[in-house]
Write a structure and sequence with these properties.
4 strands, 4-stranded antiparallel beta sheet, alpha+beta
Length: 131
């Protein structure tokens, strides 16, 4: 008896189908997990960039107004900042003619996000300004 061409074709077995579905499920699962992690990392990077911008703005403000410097640490709040953002600014005389400025920005609502800390040295204010 002669076989027809359709009988010579090999069919996909149930085992092969199950393996293909399993591999496809693994690939989709890993892809979804990677996308989820990348979106979390992107959000944290954006939040950290915002904190860095707030800290840099406050540091620039302190540099522009050296006569208003007083020794010690102040905590700053601004309604324009995102809720929960706190900035601590410290100014200390380092040596004759030099002040050390440190600004630290943090957000209480974000877990696992380290505060942004910027430090710089500036010339001491002219006489008649801060001690």
């Amino acid at each position: 008896m002669k076989t027809t061409p359709s009988r010579n074709r090999r069919a996909v077995t149930l085992l092969e189908t199950m393996i293909a579905v399993f591999l496809l499920t693994l690939i989709v699962g890993f892809t979804m997990r990677s996308l989820g992690q990348s979106s979390v990392l992107r959000a944290r990077a954006a939040q950290r960039a915002e904190l860095a911008l707030v800290a840099q703005t406050e540091l620039d403000r302190l540099r522009r107004e050296p006569d208003a410097l007083t020794s010690g640490t102040r905590t700053l709040q601004d309604p324009a900042w995102t809720a929960g953002t706190t900035v601590a600014a410290a100014a200390e005389p380092q040596s004759p003619g030099v002040w050390r400025l440190e600004v630290s920005a943090s957000r209480a609502t974000i877990e696992g996000l380290a505060p942004v800390r910027l430090v710089t040295l500036i010339p001491a204010p002219e006489e008649g300004g801060a001690p």
